[in-house]
Amino acid sequence: MHGTKNPAKPRRDRRRKGFSLLTTTVCLVVLVGMVGLGLDLGRMYIAKNELQAFADAAALAAAFELDGTAQGIIRANHVATAGPAGTPNRWHYATQNVGNVQVDFSTISTGNWVPASSVGVAADYRFVRVVAAGNLPLTFMRALDLGSQRTVRAVAFAGQGKTESCGAGCAPFSPDAPNVANNLTWGFTPGQLYALKWAPPGQRREGTLGMCQGDELAGTPKPHGSDRGYIDLGQGTGDSGLHEAIVNQAFAPEVLRVGDVIDVVPGNKDVAPALNIRFAQDTDQMSATWTAYNARGAGNGRRLLEVPINDPATNQVIGFATFFMQTSPRPVCGDGNDACCAEFVAPRAVISSARAPAGTELGALYRVRLFGGGL
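The structure corresponding to this sequence follows.
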């Protein structure tokens, strides 16, 4: 009959509405949970990147402090823990200090890590590992009973890695080895002054500003003819190129390896102004000698020169060394007819460092770089 009502239809509609409400509620809970989980995971990802940035910077800064001494280990440990100078030691959106930092050292880049307290003889400890960790509070994961926090970690390995070639980073000078057969220092004496630039042939008289005392005492052979001590690392043979190579390294450097014959830049060049500019770029212009400079620890390394050493008989590179521009007992350079002298520091070098190398290999050249990281 057309007038008869169906009492089951409203009940079916009510049941459908109830099921839809229940389904919507469950979906909303799942959706909110997924969004919340994504937000917490995103915060963990950001925190990991913050800690990784700290670990990378701390490891690199610490590696520059290593110099083969116990004091160098102490400095490196402090820098790695506190973070490099001028870099905020913060994470978690820059709201918290990185308080959990583990620092270890090694003579190789791949293992045998020990804490600073376990380093005996510091020589050859060229690598540092920094592990930074922090506890990140959770929000949505806590509501889902997945824990109230997660530990986030990051690790970085850095060190003075040996390199076989000198180009960018080396100064365009090549001191003559006083004694090539000496397998400890090639006859150089730490603390003595040796020629970066020789005086003109007629001015190379002992006891004058035309000679450096270390060369006098060692009996270093005077170079022949127009050889004055500067070399071509790719900057060319002009005054402006040599100036840029000394001060800014604004040139396309050529690769220079042990055994290569040095390209000598002939004639007199006005290198004193360039050396003075580089000297003035250092943050420690007061310390007269390398010992004082190193102990004070206020310099940025601009007064240090990493240079190839040559066999004066063949002009071949026999290794690399570190020299320091003194202020006393004489200036680096006098006038154009004087020698330019620098203090011998070590028969090895670390490019762009304010410290002596941590390695012990004669003539080795090192560059500080990251060797790995992650977690």
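The longest strand covers residues 149-163.
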